[in-house]
Amino acid sequence: MSAENFFVHSLLRAHDWQHRPQLDDVCQWWRGGGRGVLALVGMGGAGKTAIVERFLRVLPGGLPPDPDVPKDDTLPTPHGVFVFSFYDEYNPEAFFEALQMWLEHTPRIQTVLSIGQMLYLLQQTPGLMVLDGLEKVQEDGVRGLLGRLASPKLREFLDRIAAGYFPELSVLVTSRFPLADLRDARPQFFRSLPIEEIDLPAGIALLRARGVNGTNLQLEGIVEACGRHALTVDFAGGYIAEFGGGDPATPVDFDMDSERLRQRLDDEPDEARRRVLKQGHRFARLAERYREAMRGDTAERSEGKGEGDAAALALLERICLFRLGADAETLANIFTGEKAINVSGSALAGLSGAQLQKKLDWLVRMRIVESQSATRTPHSAFRVVV
Questions:
Q1: CATH for 308-384, among 2.40.50.1020, 2.30.30.110, 1.10.10.10, 3.40.50.2000?
Q2: pTM for the whole structure
Q3: Predicted confidence (pLDDT) per residue in 147-176, tens digit
């Protein structure tokens, strides 16, 4: 039984894609049969989802053809593709509901299948499955084993696939946590691919694509200061280009010698977690620099924004309230007008619909906010990237 493509959710795309060697690894896995489970594991913002999204763009039969991204004819065409993001739906049962829709070729489910019935259908269904953001349904280590799947049903599902029971079904997973169940069981068809630091040439190219000037040596210093972390490099490039005119000397100040960071590092014996703490600190510092610039507190603020920065910042803070995003009309109805001053502040409440749309367009251009086609409305939904 052949399956159609079913993209339950969209994947976040890298706007200025720089080649990552792990994409070659994913392609090679697929050329070799793509059997079982391949997990891309790394801290948030390392580029896991972007690599998978790029793979689907070059894969014949994956994402629709893109004139700027040629298909790779050496990659076999899958019988069908199923994409689900746990960032959008935390509930494993929502995943199994969507999976049943894919397997039964129907938008409506009459009777929920048992796990045994679903496994039977999976044996008859060749294809590629993408599970993005699996950490949302894994134990975080505070309670339970770090990386252990909280859902027994989902655990059994991945165990069976990694053990080779479905030889024509391939699963690509992204997660911030190791897949502890599979790592410890060591099934034959499970592989974990670490997604860590971005290469220096790729980081330099990303900064240039964002509009940062300077020599390679200057840009190399910025990449290193960012911990070679893809999203931090991307956001630092946007900050320097927008608020520093592209000058590589624009201060970002990650303050890696802060007393609070040192204390947290001293209290954490695990080296992997120490790296995450350091990177989280860098990103938080960069976010604060954005906040200061949008408030007008820094000398590097771009000309011409003035009070509009306060409105953009207030809008950004309120978009954060919508986990799945909100369209411009909804945001305008809730946060603008005289009635909204108490919840929005005067800068945001005083915007017209057209002015609010301009602020949204600027936030999207800065890549702080993404715009996606909503499933239940003809309008685009806006949500914060991180």
A1: 1.10.10.10
A2: 0.86
A3: 999 999 999 999 999 999 998 999 999 999
